Amino acid sequence: MISADHLERQLQTIIDGNRILPPQPSIPVKITVFPENEQQISELVKWATKDQITLLPLGGGTHTFSGIEDLHVAISLTKMNHQIEHVSEDLIATVAAGMTFKDVQTDLSSHGQMIPLDQPGKHNSTIGGMVSANVSGPSRHRYGTARDWVIETRLINADGKVVKSGAKVVKNVSGYDLNKLYIGARGTLGILTYISFKLAPIPKSSVTFRSCYNSLTDAFALTHLIRREYLDIEKMVIIKGKWTPGKTKHWWLLIDLAGTEIGIEPQIKHLSKLHDQVEARRWNITSKEDSQHFWNMACNREKSDDTISNEDIWEVRMVLPKRELLPFLVDLTISDEMNVSFKIFPTSGICTIEFVGKKSTVTNILNFIIKEVKVKKGLVEFVKMPPDTNFERWPILPPSFPWIQKIKRALDPNNIFAPGTFIGGI
C-alpha cells in the first residue's frame, strides 16, 4: 500500500506543494494535484508509469466512479490556463479541458455561437469531463452528442507525450479519426488537455411547448406524429417526477422549436395542430424569455429533500432500440412504496429512471430491468446507487467489449489511467 504522505513527497519533486491537496469528498483517490501546464502532466504520467502509480483524470467530479479500490492520484485540470481560441468566422473553438462548460458557453454566446450540448445539472462540469463521459441531454434530438462536434483533441498519452488527433477544420480527411476513441472513454486512455469543437449559431428565436398526459402512451403518441413532420425541433424530452415542474404525477412532454422569427411562426401553428390530435390533459407555449429557464429547471435541477438519504437513491440509465422503448416502459410494474422519476429521450431510445426506496424494495425491479434490457440488446448504466451494492455499474457488456479491451491494452499498456472505473472493470 502506498500512503498519501509517500505520494506527496514524490509529487513535490514534480509540482509545487501548494498544488498538492487531499482528495475531494467522494473522489476515489489518495491525493489530488493541480498541474499548471501540459509539461507537468507529462512528467506526472512518466513518474506514474515508472512507479506503477494509478492516475484519475479529474474535471468537476460529476461523472467519477470508484472501482474496486481507491486510485493513487487525481489529476485536476481546473487550474490550467483557461483561454479560448475562437475563430468565429469558421465556427470553431479550442478550449482547455479544465474549463467549465458554463464559462465556455457564456464566452461563445457573446458571439452568437455555442457548443450544442446541454448544460449539466452541476455548473462545475468541465469540458474535458463532459467529453470523456459523452454526456448529452434534450438537445441530442437535433444535435447529437459530443461525437458529432469534437474535431480535434490534445491529450497526454501513456508515454507522457502530447498527442493530437483530428484537426482544427470542419472537413478533415487526414488519417484515422482517433477522436472518437477518447469521447466516452471516461479518462481510461489518456488525459485530455485541449479540445476543439465545431460550433453552431444560437437560434434567433425559440419557443417551448409543454403538454401534460395521463399516460406514457399518450405522451409518445405526439412524438410518433412529429417524426413524420418537417419541424425544426431543437429539444425533446418526456419527464415525470423530480424533473417535472412542481409536484405532479402526470407525464410531461417538452418540445423546443427554434429558428428565425419569420420561419418559426408556421412551425408553431403546425405543432399546435398536432397537439390537438392527441389526448393531452393540457398544453401551452412558453415565451422565449421563459424557455431557457424552464429547461434548466425541469431537466437539470437537483431537487433537495432532507428526508431522503443518499443510500436510498438509485438512478439507472438505459439505452434500447427505439421501437422497444415504449413497450419496455409500459411493462414496468412499479411498487407504490417507491418514489420514481423518469427522463426519456423518445427519438434516441434513452431513458433515465430514478428510484427512491430501500434496497429490499428496489432490487427486484432492477434485476427485471437488467434482464429485459439485455434480451432487447440494450445497455444499462447505474448513474447513482447506494454503497455496498451488489450491482455492477455496467451490468451488460456491449458486443464491442473485446475491442474496448484491445484498445485499452494498446493505448494504456501499464494500466495507469483510471483502472477499474469503466465498463467491464477496465
Sheet-strand content, in percent, reads 25-35%
How many discrete domains? 4
Number of helical regions: 12
Examine the coordinates and then state which fold CATH places here, giving the name of the CATH topology of the largest domain: Uridine Diphospho-n-acetylenolpyruvylglucosamine Reductase, domain 3
Just give the CATH class of the largest domain: Alpha Beta
- Our measurement of the CA-to-CA distance between the termini, rounded to an integer number of angstroms, reads 21 Å
> Runs with pLDDT <50, length 5+?
none
Residue-averaged pLDDT: 87
CATH architecture of the largest domain: 2-Layer Sandwich
Can you walk through the features of this model?
By secondary structure, this protein is of the alpha+beta class. The protein has 4 domains: 84 residues, Uridine Diphospho-n-acetylenolpyruvylglucosamine Reductase, domain 2 (2-Layer Sandwich); 116 residues, Uridine Diphospho-n-acetylenolpyruvylglucosamine Reductase, domain 3, CATH 3.30.465; 94 residues, Alpha-Beta Plaits, CATH 3.30.70.2190; 75 residues, Alpha-Beta Plaits (2-Layer Sandwich), CATH 3.30.70. It is built from 12 helices and 19 strands. The protein starts with a helix and ends in a 15-residue tail after the last helix.
